[in-house]
Design goal:
globular, 316 residues, mainly beta, 4-stranded antiparallel β-sheet, 28 strands
Length: 316
């Protein structure tokens, strides 16, 4: 592992662009560090307030990020100049945006539910100096069902579908068919029942195969019913490696070129790897404090979390 950045910051979301790792985190911090020369770096504060950011996504010219708590502020950041401004503010008392993704020309995000238990789901873009958005209050969630802003990865997209993973007293998969704009909700056998349990991260290979991971952040060594896979686009899920994995996981990412077969999993206390579609796992590092991972290519993965960003090179 090569350390790229050390700072007093908690990082939950990263994006790679132009041979740089861009990040958001605590204390309103946003910045980048070069993959070629770690001395090439820059950090700015998006606000004088001590905002927390756990989301980050990009299109061709711009980064977007959303502060997690009310009032939730949507920031637009120019990639070249890093000039930034607030383009939307959600003042609803219970606003808490858990993840943000860019796919097929649109940004998608969602907040914890309104008091009526309807999920607040939004899609937006920025055209001709206008913030163009649509907010949907669907589908209906259960009492105590919400989501975790752990690594900006409890949302995933393919050409056909968009998936959202929930947790808490219920842990389910919400699937949007992007063609007919219809949400479907699928139950999972994942650990659930308390506010700290459920799915924290999902990733998909094309439309069919998906991996979900999580657990209970208050019992990080607990490893029962905290990893599951699907082969039918999220309709049904099969528990994998129950009792035989490293425990609580905040982020899972499918290795490029593996067609879903090889997967990395990151938790506060472990980095684990599967080479058989998530059926078995091996701890490859006991490094602590990583929350999010992003493959740079088949041989290199970027890891970030508490106070640092590192680049890890695989030899297999």
């Amino acid at each position: 592992m090569e350390t790229l950045l050390q700072d007093k910051i908690s990082i939950r979301a990263i994006e790679v662009w132009n041979n740089r790792v861009y990040y958001t985190g605590t204390e309103s911090k946003f910045g980048y560090v070069s993959l070629k020369d770690s001395a090439d770096r820059k950090q700015i504060r998006l606000s004088e307030d001590k905002l927390q950011f756990r989301t980050l996504a990009q299109d061709r010219n711009t980064f977007y990020t959303i502060s997690i708590e009310s009032p939730a502020q949507f920031f637009r950041i120019d990639k070249k100049s890093l000039e930034n401004r607030i383009i939307y503010t959600d003042t609803v008392k219970n606003a808490f945006y858990d993840a943000l993704i860019y796919s097929n020309g649109m940004f998608y995000t969602f907040s914890d539910p309104n008091p009526d238990l309807k999920l607040k789901f939004a899609e937006f873009n920025y055209w001709n100096e206008n913030f163009v958005s649509k907010f949907y209050t669907e589908p209906q969630l259960k009492e105590g069902e919400a989501a975790f802003a752990a690594s900006n990865t409890n949302i995933a997209a393919s050409n056909r579908y968009l998936w959202i993973a929930t947790g808490g007293k219920s842990s389910r998969i919400l699937r949007l068919d992007r063609k007919n704009r219809n949400f479907e909700i699928f139950e999972t056998p994942f650990i659930q029942g308390t506010v700290s349990q459920g799915i924290y991260s999902i990733d998909f290979y094309k439309d069919k195969f998906g991996i979900a991971a999580g657990g209970d952040y208050t019992q990080q060594e607990a490893n029962f019913k905290n990893i599951a896979t699907t082969d039918n686009a999220g309709k049904t899920w099969q528990i994998q490696a129950s009792g035989k994995n490293a425990g609580y996981t905040t982020c899972v990412k499918i290795r490029p070129g593996s067609k879903g077969k090889e997967i990395i999993a990151v938790g506060d206390r472990h980095i684990s790897y599967s080479k058989d579609f998530g059926k078995t796992w091996k701890v490859i590092s006991e490094e602590k404090g990583f929350y999010v991972a992003e493959w740079l290519n088949r041989k290199t993965v970027i890891l970030a979390g508490k106070d640092r960003i590192v680049m890890a090179n695989f030899v297999f």
